[in-house]
Prior knowledge:
Elements lengths: L1 H12 L13 H12 L5 H5 L3 H9 L13 H17 L3
Helix pairs in contact: 2-5
Amino acid sequence: MESKINSKVKKATKMVHYEPPIHWRDYEDIAMKLYERFGDEFGESKIYRIRFTELLEWVLEIPNFEGKREECNEGHLEMIQSTWVYEWRDNQN
């Protein structure tokens, strides 16, 4: 009986949490992922000084991000940057 319970527990822990794909216009999702990755290492002024070439690479590295490099434009990167700042602000106490 105990081995059956252990087997069910092991199967349950192996279940994968589904996260929907992220695209260029999912600014809040991208900002949350960037905040999770960098935390308070990047404050407001540092976020606004990030080169777009670096930001582009970081976004493309996000798990479940399905956008393509060719679909990116300056407007997307500006929105990601400002939304990341709001995410950072929301997490300051």
